[in-house]
Amino acid sequence: CNSVTSVTGKEQEGVKAKTSYTYKRYTESFREWLQLLNYSKSGIDRMPRQLAEFFSWLEKEARLPDGQGVKEISSITRTHTKLFYHHLKYHRKSQNSGEFLKSSTQNSYIHCLKLFAHYLEETGQGKLTIDLPYEPKEVTRREILTLKEIDSLYNATTDDEKGLRERAILSLYYGCGVRSNEGIQMNLEDVMTDKKMVYVRKGKQYKERYVPFVAHQQKDFLLYLKHCRPQLLRNPEEQAFLLGNQGKRIGYGLLLGTLKRLQERTADEKLQAKTIGLHTLRHSIATHLLQTGMKLDSISRFLGHSKLRSTQAYTHLAHEIE
Question: Are the C-beta atoms of residues 225 and 243 closer than 8 Å to each other?
Fold first, then answer.
């Protein structure tokens, strides 16, 4: 799911699909499968909607030789999927902007259909051939922070207990390069300060990995665990490593807000002008590791990429910021 560009909820509201019971059953079971494989919340929300739209289009617009709509998976042909692709490219408009769908949005639909076909095969529910081509990606620049800018974020942390959480967040998301949801789902037992390693048990598609960290990250984690987490904790049964202000597992909003506040506190105007998020920290550590000479396959394992080409995207970035 790495290659899919996120689609806004508003853009997806363009079609409120109504489908038959059979298609609804497939849509719901597909959603459950995505949850089981630990796809992101946005993906779990988005892809079933896209699939429901495809099913609705099949019933209303596609036709079998007898003139009836396509209401069974077994009746879907390559011609139907190609016609739907044509519909997305030349007819479907975003309700939000009134414009034709961007190529990234079209690609997310294609990815959804291919993933659904994989789901059918994996669960023994049939076969669906999706041989649609992806649209060329729009050129978008990934924001990468320099080592100096990373230092500026660390230096912007406060001297109180909350500052210890800020440093722990930076050390987890930059130092360990975890994805946003991987850090949120991390438990106390997953951060092994004695071994200088974190265990990512809920990576994409439930792929597990161990990620090493260095001494200063070890120090950040230990100080957070000793002086900050106990102050936040309300329920002694809570197992989450990072806690929010209410003593429960931290949420994405607080994580992003913390990063934005650190960015605003720095005296670096160039850094303040950048649009950054948690994934920026992940992109940055990958680029910095590449600059140190670490091999691509090692960085790929560090990041939890299933395909090496996902990691190769960082090679040109490493040269650009040298």
Answer: no
Tell me whether residue 265 is one of the annotated catalytic residues.
no
For residue 172, give its domain range: 147-320
d(C-alpha 115, C-alpha 37), whole Å? 12
Instruction: Tell me if 188 sits within 8 A of 241, measured CB to CB.
Output: yes
Which residue is catalytic, options 82, 274, 279, 316? 279
**Does pLDDT of 60 surpass 70?**
yes
Q: Is 279 a catalytic residue?
A: yes
Lowest-confidence pick of 143-152, 200-209, 271-280: 200-209
91 flagged as catalytic = no
pLDDT in tens, 17-39: 555 778 999 999 999 999 988 88
Among residues 80, 111, 167, 204, the one annotated as catalytic is 204
Q: Residue 98 falls within a domain, yes or no?
A: yes
Give the domain-ending residue among 122, 138, 169. Answer: 122
Asked if 153 and 118 sit in the same domain, the reply is: no
Query: Count of domains in the chain?
Result: 2
Q: Active site includes 229?
A: no
User: Is residue 127 included in any domain, yes or no?
Assistant: no
Q: Cα–Cα distance between 110 and 163 in angstroms, integer?
A: 43
Opening angle at CA 226, ends 192 and 173, nearest 5:
50
Mean residue pLDDT of the chain comes to 87
- What confidence tens digit (pLDDT) does each residue in 110-121 have? 999 999 999 999
Identify the weakest region by mean pLDDT among 37-46, 53-62, 202-211.
Answer: 202-211
Q: What is the CATH number of the domain that holds 236?
A: 1.10.443.10
- Tell whether the model's pLDDT for residue 13 goes beyond 70: no
User: At 77, which CATH number?
Assistant: 1.10.150
Percent composition of the chain: helix, strand, coil (DSSP 3-state, to 5):
55, 5, 40
